[in-house]
Each structure stands twice: as C-alpha cells, then as structure tokens.
Specification:
The structure holds 2 protein chains of 2 kinds. By secondary structure, chain A is mostly helical. Chain A is about 60% helix and about 0% strand. Chain A contains 5 helices and no strands. In chain A, helix 2 packs antiparallel against helix 4. The longest helix of chain A is centred in the middle third of the chain and has 30 residues. The radius of gyration of chain B is 26 Å and the shape is globular. Chain B starts with a helix and ends with a helix. Chain B is α/β, with parallel strands linked by helices. Helix content of chain B is about 60%, strand content about 10%. Chain B has 3 domains: about 90 residues, no CATH class; about 200 residues, no CATH class; about 180 residues, Rossmann fold. Classes of the chains: A mainly alpha, B alpha/beta. Chains A and B meet through helix 1, helix 2, helix 3 and helix 4 of A and helix 2, helix 3, helix 4, helix 5 and strand 1 of B.
Chain lengths: ~120, ~500
C-alpha cells in the first residue's frame, strides 16, 4: 500500500514536471537555444544527488554495505556530476554574458571604434 | 540540548522537502528567465542557486555521510569542470556541451550500477526521502525500483558514449563524415538494443548477476557508439540535443528509483525541453528524428555527395578582397550569412568591424541566421552577440528569405550546407527538403571559404557555380579584415 502510493506520487510528479517543462520551454526564442541547451544540460547534473544519497546509506547489519568498488563508482559519479553542474552553469553564464546589452554608444561613429576583440567576455570573468 | 534540537530541525524530513521544493521552483523560474536575452543571465544564476540548495539539502539528510569521499569527488569534478568551462573558446561550445552532457549520462549509469549492487544484496527496503530512513525488512525491493534503475542505466550509458563520440566528431578527433557498417548498420543497432533490453528484463526479473549488469552497460554503450558514429556532422546538433533529453530522462528515472522528488522534477524538465528542442531542430532541417537515428544521413549522404562532386563542370569565379570591398561599398543592402567557417576562424569581431565600416557608408547591413548554422541552434547568435552585433540586426530564416530579393550583395562567410540550393532543386540530394537561406535570390553573392572542399555534410554546393556568385578564398577572419582594410582606402 505505502509503496504503491510512493510510486504513484512519484509518477504524478514525473508527469506534471514534464508538462511544466513543455510549457516553460516552448516560449524560448530560437536565438537562445544554445544557452538553453547548455543550461538544461547543467540542470541534469542534479544526478549528483543520487550519488550523494547512495553514499549516505546507513550501515545496518542486514543492509547493504558499500564495498570498495561501489565507493569508487560513486566517487567517479560525484566527480562526473560536479563537472556537469559546475561546467554547465559556468559555460552558460559566459555565453549569456554576451547577450547583455553593453553600455556603449553606437551609430554613425561606428568606424572609429577600436576592435571589439579586446573587450571580449574573457576579460570580464 | 540546543545543538541536537537545531540539527533535528535541519534534518527533519519536512524541512528537507521544503528545500527541494524551493530548489525546483528556482529551476523553473530560472528557465523562464532564459526566455529573454535580458533576463537570461539572471535565469541561469537562479537555476544555479536552486542546484546549490538541492545539494545542500541532500548533504543535510540524516545518514552516515562519507565526507572524505564526497569532498574527493567534488574536488575532482571542480578541478576538471571549472577550468574547462572558463577556458573553452566560444567556437568550441558545442563540443563542450556534448562533453558535459556525456559525463551527466555517465554519472547516471554509475549510480544505477551501485543501486543495482545495493538491491542485489539488501534484505530490506530503504526509503531515503523521509530523512530517517524507513526500513521495511524482509521485503524484496519493489520491482519498479529495478525497472527504473535498469532504464536509467541503459539510457545513461547510451548518452555517455554517444556524447563522447559527438564530442570526438566536433573536436575533429574522429572524422566528421559518417562512419558506418553500411547496410548492416540498422541490424547491428537493433541487435545491440535487443541485447541490452533482454539483459535489463532479466535483471528486473531477479537475476542478480553483476556480469549481466555489466554486459547490459556494455551493450548500451556500444549502441551509443553505433548510433552516433554513422551520423553526419550536419545532424550533430540534433543528436546532442537528443542525448541531452536522454540524460534528463535517465536522471528522472534515477529519481523515481531513489524516491527523490528533486531529481524527478529537474530530470523531467530537461527531458521535456530537450525533446522540444530536438524536434524544433529536426523540423528546421526537414528530417525526421527516426531517420536521423537510423543513420539515414549516413551511407546515402556520403555516396551522393561523392558522386555529385564530379558532375559539376561549371566554372568557379574567384575574386579579390579589393573587388569584394567595391561591390559591398556600392550596395544599398548587404546580407551577411555566417556559418561554421566564421566560428572556426574566430572571425566574429572582424565581421563586426566590417559591418561598422559599411554602416558608416550608409549601407544597410543585416545578418541571416539559419536555425542550424554552425554546430548548434543559436551558435551564430552567441558568436555575434560576443562581437556586440545588435540583436535587431539578426534575422531568422523566414524573414531573411523574404529580404534576399531586395538584397544587393549576400556575403556568405563560411556557411555551406545551409545555403545549398540542392536542398530545393535536387531530389536525390541527402539534404533535399531542408529549408535553406535562399541567397541565390540576391543580385550577387560573395562566398568566403577556405577551399572548394565540400562542407561538414560532405555535399557539393551548386551555389558556387552560379553566374552571380564569386568566391573569395581564404581564412574567414583574414579575408573579412582585408575587405575592411580595402574599404577604408576607397
């Protein structure tokens, strides 16, 4: 009984989250698709939580003990998840910084500006 | 007493659930922010804060945390991820996204493996979510846990290996052209899929064999390789997006298996968004997703391209930077069509200088952006935004196609397949039916290209043989800079 209700609750969450995903994301303009892909890519790094949870399982007598192999696998999984999260958000941030309107006069005087290459995003970070 | 009280409160299931709810509310709010160029930075940071909260909530869970191992894993990940993300060039962004996606899939597969090892040897069910681990002893773990774990393992493994191949192809470690077993390709894919599924069913049915599980991971991994290897470069954006959706779905499945709502919500949102994006891209290229996955672009495309190469006896007219500058200077309206060539040459700033010089001469300049120009949707937008090109100068494909008729000069910078008229005129061409930028409608066309080599998809471009087309051979950046220099002397 209890287990069944846990499953159905989770399935309901799953379905509703899917709908939210569709609704929220179908509004995003083409031009932001790369940052969007990169941003959602960072979000699925949340699998890190799975590895953290499994590492924290209590060591009761009857229950499974993490053996060395499991520990190694989980450390790798944590490292992978961290790369996914940290790298994903940083890269997305760098990309999006470029979309920010920059306080810079533009117009007829265009030709006298210095090459834009010197003030790329790298200098800002 | 006060310390235990405080820690009891912090570890109480309701409090942790509230943290999770806050976390995924922030994810959703963050994604909403991504809908506009001005709110996007904040949106991404909002999602990152949500992630931090979710991680902290998980670390607060009651249980025996092995802090040393956790710190080790996070330190390793940060040591790799941070420099990679900070140093990667904007042009290499697609491969970087593929790589980050791959490690996410890898993490899912590894977690499922450990979950399976746990299921195999436990005599009780551990419900992790309620903080204080409820244990129903002597009950077999419910079957659905095994089903979702096995699903996550297969999909995660496919995503990991597929993404790595995509990375290798975009980084040009592996040739971008399709590699396949020819007609046996689909049989091989099917056999691998069936093997992985059969192993999965056996595991769900109660076979607690480590070897079987590893065999399933290997089959799924080989399947990931076999699916992505035959896919030609032009389809790569669609593939990365699809694998991104896969990783999201597998994360959601892990969430169901581990009974963790944050994982379910975040994974599913990514799954949904990735599916939409994949579909949008496939529509933009007039390709069906099953056709891409079945390797449709693979064999046929390459052969077609190779035989097509010999057919053109037409002449290619080359031009010089000085001539191109004159042509551009006396035009009323110029449309710039950027492609991957601009990205590899890092030519976006040079292009921006050229547009400024042209605007100073009262030439109307805009950019025509094909949805799949470059290696990812929006790839060109990111690069041009980096170079301070105003947002309103960028025109999407439909808009741009209406403008070509009144365009004096189209300047194609390293774009190939997305301008290829074969997509409209040659039914036998592998890209037939893909919407293109109809640059041939403009009065004249200047194409900047390194050589006459066909593009990433390996298909000859008829546009270069058109009478109104002239070719300016050279690296995109130096060619554009030369034109700008010539303009200054007019």
């Amino acid at each position: 009984m209890i287990l069944a209700s846990v499953l159905t609750t989770n399935l309901a969450i799953l379905v509703l989250a899917g709908f939210i995903g569709f609704v929220v994301i179908s509004k995003i303009p083409n031009t932001l698709h790369t940052p969007l892909m990169s941003g959602t890519n960072a979000i699925h790094g949340i699998v890190l939580l799975g590895a953290l949870l499994l590492l924290a399982l209590p060591e009761f007598g009857l229950l499974f003990r993490l053996d060395a192999l499991s520990e190694v696998l989980l450390v790798i999984a944590i490292a992978f998840g961290t790369i996914n999260i940290v790298g994903g958000f940083l890269v997305t941030d760098r990309m999006l910084e470029m979309f920010k309107p920059k306080p810079k006069a533009r117009g007829g005087d265009g030709a006298q500006d210095e090459p834009g290459g010197e003030q790329g995003p790298g200098g800002k970070q | 007493m006060s310390v235990p009280l405080a820690s009891t409160f912090l570890q109480s299931p309701s409090f942790l659930d509230v943290l999770y709810i806050i976390a995924f509310a922030l994810f959703i709010q963050g994604l909403r922010g991504l809908a506009g160029p001005t709110s996007a930075v904040r949106g991404n940071r909002t999602a990152a804060i949500g992630m931090a909260i979710a991680v902290i909530a998980t670390l607060l869970q009651h249980g025996e945390h092995r802090w040393g191992l956790i710190a080790l894993g996070i330190a390793l990940g940060a040591a790799v991820g941070v420099p990679a993300a900070r140093q990667v060039k904007m042009t290499a962004m697609p491969q970087m996204v593929a790589l980050f996606n791959g490690v996410g899939g890898g993490a899912v597969a590894l977690i499922s493996w450990v979950e399976f090892r746990r299921l195999g040897s436990s005599y009780g069910v551990v419900t992790v979510r309620d903080g204080a681990f409820t244990i129903a002893s002597h009950t077999a773990p419910p079957t659905y846990v095994a089903i979702f774990s096995v699903f996550a393992a297969i999909v995660g493994s496919v995503s990991f290996w597929g993404s790595n191949i995509a990375f290798g192809k975009l980084q040009e470690i592996i040739p971008g052209r399709p590699i396949s077993f020819g007609s046996a390709q689909q049989v091989v894919n099917l056999v691998l899929l069936v093997l992985a599924l059969a192993a999965g069913v056996d595991l769900v049915a109660g076979a607690h064999s480590q070897l079987l599980f590893i065999g399933m991971l290997v089959c799924a991994g080989l399947l990931g390789n076999a699916v992505v290897l035959p896919i030609g470069g032009a389809d790569m954006p669609v593939v990365i997006s699809m694998l991104n959706a896969f990783t999201g779905l597998s994360a959601a499945a892990t969430g169901v298996a581990l009974n963790n709502p944050a994982l379910i919500v975040a994974g599913m949102i990514v799954g949904a968004s990735g599916s939409i994006l994949t579909n949008l891209m496939a529509v933009a290229m007039n390709r069906s997703i099953p056709a891409i996955v079945a390797g449709g672009f693979g064999g046929g495309g390459a052969v077609e391209g190779a035989s097509g190469a010999g057919e053109h006896a037409g002449t290619v007219r080359s031009t010089t930077a000085a001539d191109a500058a004159i042509q551009l200077a006396y035009a009323n309206r110029v449309m710039i069509v950027p492609g991957y060539g601009m990205a590899v040459a890092q030519a976006q700033h040079a292009v921006r200088e050229l547009t400024k010089a042209l605007e100073a001469r009262q030439v109307e300049v805009s950019f025509a952006i094909h949805p799949v120009a470059g290696r990812m949707p929006g790839h060109m937008n990111v690069l041009l935004a980096e170079a301070d090109v105003p947002y309103d100068q960028l025109e999407e494909m439909e808009e741009a196609n209406q403008e070509f008729g009144r365009t004096d000069v189209s300047l194609v910078i390293g774009a190939n397949d997305v301008t290829n008229p074969a997509a409209k005129n040659t039914p036998s061409s592998p890209i037939y039916g893909m919407p293109i930028l109809e640059v041939a409608n403009s009065h004249s066309v200047i194409v900047i290209k390194r050589s006459m080599n066909p593009g990433f998809a390996g298909i000859e471009n008829e546009l270069y043989y058109e009478p109104e087309t002239t070719m300016l051979f050279g690296d995109a950046k130096s060619a554009v800079s030369e034109i700008t220099a010539e303009l200054a002397q007019l």
